Amino acid sequence: MSDGSKKALEAAEVVRRAGLGALEEGNFDAALAAFGNAIDLLNKNHLKNRPNYDLARAKLQVDSGKCLLQLGQLNVALEAFNSAQRFHDLPDLANQPELNADRATLQMYRGTCLADLGRLDDALAAYDAAQALQQEPHLAERPDLDKDRARLQNNRGNSLSDLGHLDAALEAYDIAMMYHQKPYLADLLELDADRARLQMNRGSCLLKLGRLADALVAYDTALAYHDKPHLADRPEHDAERARLQINRGSCLLKLGRLADALVAYDTALHYYQKPQLVERLELDDDRASLHLNRGICLRQLGRLNEALAAFDSALVYHQSRNLTGRPELDVDRAKVQVNRGNALSDLGQFENASLAYSQAEHLYDENKLAMHPSYLVELGRLLLNKARMNAQLGNSENAFDLLKSAHSSLKRSGLSDTGVMILRAVVQEEQGELCVADGSNHQAITFFEHSLDVLNSASDAGRDQVVYIIARVSNKLARLYLQMDEHEKAIAVLDRVADNVSE
Description:
The chain is mainly α.
C-alpha cells in the first residue's frame, strides 16, 4: 500500500469515527454527512478499484444505512445495506468466515429496513440469514454476540407476528428473553430499553393470541423497565412509552377494565403532547390509533359525545398530509368511520351514521379485499354494525340482508382466529334474533345452533369470552324451545352450557 493510499484510508477512518460519535449522540444528519465524506475519500480515482478497501466501504455503507433508517429514509437505507452486501459477496471478502459476525449484523439491519417497508417475507428471510450466520460453529459459542442474538430474535418475532405466525413469534421472543437472562447480560442496565421493547412486543403477540392476562403482565413488565431511574427521565423513549400505553389500554379494554384502559390512553395522550413529540409527523399513525381506541373505550363507558370527538380527532390525523398518501392505512380509516357510525347511531343521528358507514364501505374495494383477508373481516364488522342500525330503525329486511353479506365476507376471509369466529357467531346470533322477531322460530333455531357450532369450533384463546357468548346464545335458544313447548330440548341446551362453563 502506497503512502498516499495509506493516508487516505487513515483519513477515512478518522472521519468514520467522527460519524460514529455523531450517530451515538443521535445527530443523524451529521453522522450521515461524515460517512458520506469517508466514502468519497475511498472512491477517489486512485483508490476506487482497490479491493483491499472493500471491507471499509462495506462498513461505511452499513453505517450510512443505520443513519438513514433513523431518518426514515427507508428506500435509500435499503440501497446502502444492499451495497454493503454486494461488497461482502465480492471474492476478496466472500471467503473470510471471520466476517460472518459483520454479515449477520448487516442482515439484521436489512431485515429491520425491509420490515419497516412492509416487505415482511423479505425481512424474515434476512433475519433467518442472520440467524444462520450466528449459528455457525465459530460464532455459536461467542457470548459477546448474545446481545445481537437477543435483538435479532426480537426483530424476527415482530415480523413473524405481523405475518400471523403467532406461536413462532412468541418462541422468538422467548429466545430473546433467554439471552437477556444470561448472567453476563442480566446486569447490563443499557439493555433495559431493549428489554422494555421486547416485553411490549411479547405483550402484543400474547394479545393477538387472546392470552389477555399474560399480555398485561408483559406490558406491565415493560412499564417497570421504563420506570427505572436510568430510563425514566430519558425523553427519547417517550414515543415508545406512548405506544406501550396504547397497547396496555387495548388489553385492559378487552379485559373489561374500562376505567384503567382510559387512564392508559390518557397517559399516552400526555406523552404525545410533549414538545419533543408534537412535531414528529411519523407518529401521526400512532396518534390516530390512540384516538380510535380511546373513542372505543369512551363509547363503552357511555360517554358518547367524547367518543365521537375522539373518533373525529383520529379522522383528522388520517386526513393529514402525512398520512393521506398511504393506502395501507385504509383499513384503519375504515375502522374510524365504522366507530364514528356506531357513536352517531347511539346518539340517534342515523343519517350521519349511515354516511359514516358508507364512507367506510367505500374504502373496501375488491382489489384490497383480495389482497388482505383482514379487510374482509373489517368489512364484515362494518356490515354487522349497519345491520344493527337498520334493525334499530325497524328496517328488518335490510338488516337481514346486511347480516347475510357480513357472514359471507367473514367466511371469504378464510381466517379462523378466535376474534373472527366470535364475530361470525354474533352475526348468526343476530340473524336468529331477527327471525324470532319475525315469528320464524324454526329458522331462528337454525341460526342459533349454527352460532353455537362456530363458537365450539373456536380455539382455546380467549376462551372466557367464547364461553360467555355460548351462554348468551344458549339461553336464547333454550327460551325459544320453551316457548315452543319443547322442554327436553331446552334442558339439553342448558346442560351443554353447564358443560362448557365447567371445562
